[in-house]
Design a protein that fits this description.
Elements lengths: L13 E5 L11 H7 L3 E7 L1 H11 L9 E5 L2 H4 L5 H15 L5 E6 L1 H5 L4 H12 L4 E6 L9 H10 L10 E5 L4 H14 L4 E4 L14 E5 L5 H9 L3 E2 L7 H15 L4 H26 L3 E4 L6 H11 L3 E7 L4 H8 L7 E6 L1 H11 L3 E4 L1 H9 L4 E3 L2 H4 L8 H23 L1
Parallel strand pairs: 1-12, 2-3, 2-4, 4-5, 6-7, 6-8, 8-9, 10-11, 10-13, 11-12, 13-14
Cofactor: [4Fe-4S] cluster
Pfam families: Oxidored_nitro
Enzyme class: oxidoreductase
């Protein structure tokens, strides 16, 4: 791994793009959130299109009992011919009668509900009072009108923060929905380092939701949680800045920031992290044989682009031509930007046509982009990686480093094989 650059990209100029953008809507976040929170239910107040999106994205069969659903806004609701609030009350009552296991109910706004100005905040307050203490009802927006798809999780967690009980004891809060197996790895590493107590937001069950106060310190596990970060700081909690835990270097730096906060001795840190760091480096080396010397271009999609670019350039030997991200929150991304050597073009926001022009001029070896762009670019002879796959796949911390690197190596290997077959 190269040494840290003398100057990173934190102060590099950023190209602000404000044009046509192509992203999934924030409802997509329900697909991983409903699996994480085991006694929660996500009720989307939207159209049949919203229902079809969730059904398709989650792959839920019609006879399954998922922890999400859609309260369909019919034509008469959209035309103002029916009282949507009364209909929503009836729908929630039927849902809770059928599913007594629900402890948290999220009313999720959509494009249709926001267009007709349906006040879900008022509905959440009314329903929470009606069904307390058995069920807590919250609301957030999953609309995709002006947002990218990972903001659905951010909006959900930010809505939870004001409801968290107050506590003054010093605790570490890990913020961001991780797959259970990855969260368990993080908790085990922190326990071995002697860091605790540690709580998670979101918790797997409502009864385990964290407490928060002025003595709470928190670390983000996902780079797209800007609103949640602000909500926690308003509650008095303090953020621990660090690179995000993608790759061996990012995970080590993330853990090191927490270790400094909790005065973990250097010897203990080395003892706990030496073996998993070595495993991670070996796992990356296998994929780096394919990735080293190749170029990569990031379209703005998931907000994971900056830490992933840091991983690919520093640990896998790739060259980043452009790093596009929907939002560049320097308070969160600064530590990662500090580790990226100057050179890549940084862009914030999206103007698809202009970015496609720059892509075609650069002809990178690999393009990380959304599904809507991937197939046309493949037809032009460019290898692509679906950005959304990097959100749905466990890729954090040491034990997932090899899987993360292979996600980028596989499309390049496939492209190389196709070229060999064409030559024969």
């Amino acid at each position: 791994m190269p040494p840290p650059p003398a100057t990173g990209c934190r102060s590099a100029p950023v190209l602000k793009e404000r044009g046509q953008h192509e992203v999934f809507c924030g409802l997509t976040g329900i697909v991983w959130l409903h699996r994480k929170m085991q006694d929660a239910f996500f009720l989307v107040v939207g159209s049949r299109t919203c229902a079809h999106l969730l059904q398709s994205a989650a792959g839920v069969m019609i006879f399954a009992e998922p922890r999400f659903g859609t309260a369909i806004l019919e034509e008469q609701d959209l035309a103002g011919l029916a009282d949507a609030q009364e209909e929503l009350d009836r729908e929630v009552a039927r849902l809770l009668a059928r599913r007594p296991d629900i402890r948290q109910l999220f009313l999720v706004g959509s494009c249709p509900s926001e267009v007709i100005k349906l006040d879900l905040a008022k509905a959440a307050q009314r329903l929470s009072a009606r069904h307390a203490p058995h069920v807590r009802v919250l609301n957030y927006s999953g609309s995709g009108i002006e947002t990218t798809f990972t903001q659905g999780e951010d909006a959900c967690l930010a809505a939870m923060v004001p409801q968290l009980p107050e506590k003054s004891a010093r605790e570490l809060l890990l913020v961001g929905a991780l797959p259970d197996v990855v969260e368990d790895q993080a908790l085990r590493l922190l326990s071995d380092l002697g860091i605790g107590p540690v709580r998670c937001l979101p918790a797997r069950r409502a009864e385990d939701m964290p407490l928060v106060g002025p003595d709470t310190v928190f670390a983000l596990t996902q780079p797209f949680l800007g609103d949640t970060h602000a909500a926690l700081e308003r509650r008095g909690a303090r953020h621990i800045p660090a690179p995000f835990p993608f790759g061996e270097e990012g995970t080590t730096e993330w853990l090191a920031a927490l270790a400094r906060e909790f005065d973990v001795p250097a010897g203990r840190f080395e003892q706990v992290t030496a073996a998993p760091r070595a495993r991670a480096r070996r796992a990356v080396a296998a994929a780096a044989e394919t990735l080293a010397g190749r170029s990569v271009f990031f379209f703005p999609d998931s907000q994971l682009e900056i830490p992933l670019a840091r991983f690919l350039t520093r640990e896998c030997g790739m060259e980043a031509i452009e790093i596009g991200t929907p939002y560049l929150h320097k308070a969160l991304m600064g530590p990662d930007l500090d580790l990226i050597a100057p050179g890549p073009n940084l862009s914030e926001g999206q103007d698809v046509d202009r970015q496609l022009d720059r892509l075609r001029a650069a002809r990178p070896d690999l393009t990380v982009c959304g599904l809507g762009l991937a197939n046309p670019l493949e037809a032009e002879g460019l290898a692509t990686k679906w950005a959304i796959e990097l959100v749905f796949t466990p890729v954090h911390l040491y034990e997932q480093v090899g899987d993360l690197a292979q996600l980028f190596a596989r499309p390049l290997r496939r492209r190389d094989l196709l070229k060999l077959e064409a030559a024969e």
